[in-house]
């Protein structure tokens, strides 16, 4: 897939771009079946809950590729690794992990505003995600929202749990509390897209983002995200990181390449 230079410039400036029609029906069918399998029989990292409003249900899971060959094939062999290389301008790409966000109809819970990297055991600027829509996504079914340019602000926000009542994350004294971005929406450039199945949003790991609930009566909102890292990314598991994505085989400061974060693309040069 050819990415125009203007799209790369938009990504650098805004930290997010919308890429229509990236994933074809063959992949979508395989991923939809894999999602059904995961909901029926999730692995160890599942984080589901009933909606706070009493209706609907959220099913979240991560590191799915380690359990299911279709998720693995998509993370390792779809157009995404090369796309990550293009956006990250890197000599190599490591798969970091994948994550599923299913909001069934009537799931009123918002995805709280956050930036991703404080939750993750990785340091570096070449870190990004691709969020794939498996259903038509509209504002009222939980379209993602992004604060354009916020990846450049150097602000690390304290991780907070997404589900009500979930245990808090370890406090990191270097992080600031996440502001109430809803209360200050008029002070930011908030971007969002309606999406069709197969469309992808590419976004930087430091951009502030969130999503509404799925307030529709009948339409699911299945989003599947894959995260990749480039040359400058190193392992770092400081206070506040999500324990489920730590890698016990790596020391702080180490390059990522490992069974858990495999190298999925390289430019043919000698890289680790
Ligand atoms: O799908 C959602 O509601 C949230 C997605 C998200 O935060 C992510 O992929 O980083």
Word description of this protein:
With 272 residues, the protein is α+β, with helices and mostly antiparallel strands. It has one domain: Jelly Rolls, CATH 2.60.120.620. 16% of the residues lie in helices and 25% in strands. Strands 1, 2, 3, 4, 7, 10, 12 and 14 form an 8-stranded antiparallel sheet that branches. The chain has a 4-stranded antiparallel sheet with strand order 5-11-8-9, with no helix packed on it. A two-stranded antiparallel sheet has the order 6-13. It is globular, with a radius of gyration of 17 Å. The site of 2-oxoglutaric acid has 10 residues, from strand 4, strand 7, strand 11 and strand 12.
Summarize it:
This protein is an alpha+beta fold.
